[in-house]
Amino acid sequence: MSPDRRSQIGFFVQQLPFFFILVALWMLLWGQLTWLTFLTGVGAAVFVTRVFRLPPVDLSGRLNLWYGFVFVVTFLAAVVRGSLVVAWQVLDFRRAPGAAIIAVPLRVDDDVIMAHTAVTASLIPGSLIVDVDREGRTLFLHTIGIRSDEDAEHQRRVVLGWEARITRAVGSREQLADLRRQIAESDAHAHLGAASPRDGRTPL
């Protein structure tokens, strides 16, 4: 098999997850898990990927099932906790919850991990991505419940915690090693490693 043919097959296999995601989205759109929606979803996915040809997404090729499971469980717990916190802030008439726009510089130079981190931060009640600086690897979040610089710094650590979890689950070994090195070189690495997973921070 020629190198060009091998590279084409490797590229096709690497992009298969996105193809199946499009099919799953089509089936969810129709709310039916039938062979008809599956086949029409395959047709729609082929049409979208062939007509609207976007730059390919370079995946790491690594998936850690255990850390993926930990991420899902922690995320669901954070969604429930965030919902309760936001509900309490709304019902607490003694003081306004406070809000702020917070810039969070990420540590991993990868578009996929950046996108996953942004989506995760937006899905948890209480915070919403309002802007993204792709060149500077910075997320801008509108967050409620911010009354001091300490609260803002805590929210930054929360987002960086999600970035760390996602990197552990789907990041490459090089990305994980680089993230560990950055944490080790940071003066605040003890705070990032000692906090409980409940607030979104996680040791590496």
Describe the structure.
It is a single chain. The chain is mainly alpha-helical and 204 residues long. The protein is built from seven helices and three strands, in the order αααβαββααα. It has helices spanning 3-30, 35-51, 65-91, 111-123, 149-170, 173-185, 189-194, and strands at residues 99-105, 127-133, 138-144. Strands 1-3-2 form a three-stranded antiparallel beta sheet, with helices on one face. Strand 2 (127-133) and strand 3 (138-144) form a beta hairpin. It is globular and about 60 Å long.
List keywords for this structure.
mainly alpha, 7 helices
Helix and strand layout, with pairings?
Elements: H1 3-30, H2 35-51, H3 65-91, E1 99-105, H4 111-123, E2 127-133, E3 138-144, H5 149-170, H6 173-185, H7 189-194
Antiparallel strand pairs: 1-3, 2-3
Helix pairs in contact: 1-2, 3-5, 4-5
Please bin the fraction of helical residues: 55-70%
**What proportion strand?**
5-15%
Helix/strand/pairing category: mainly alpha
Strand order of the largest sheet: 1-3-2
Radius of gyration: 20 Å
Secondary-structure element series = HHHEHEEHHH
Give the termini separation. Answer: 41 Å
Count of alpha and pi helical runs:
7
Outline: globular
Number of strands: 3
Low-confidence sequence ranges? 192-201
Overall pLDDT score: 79
Report the biggest beta sheet as strand number plus sense, adding barrel if it closes. Answer: 3 strands, antiparallel
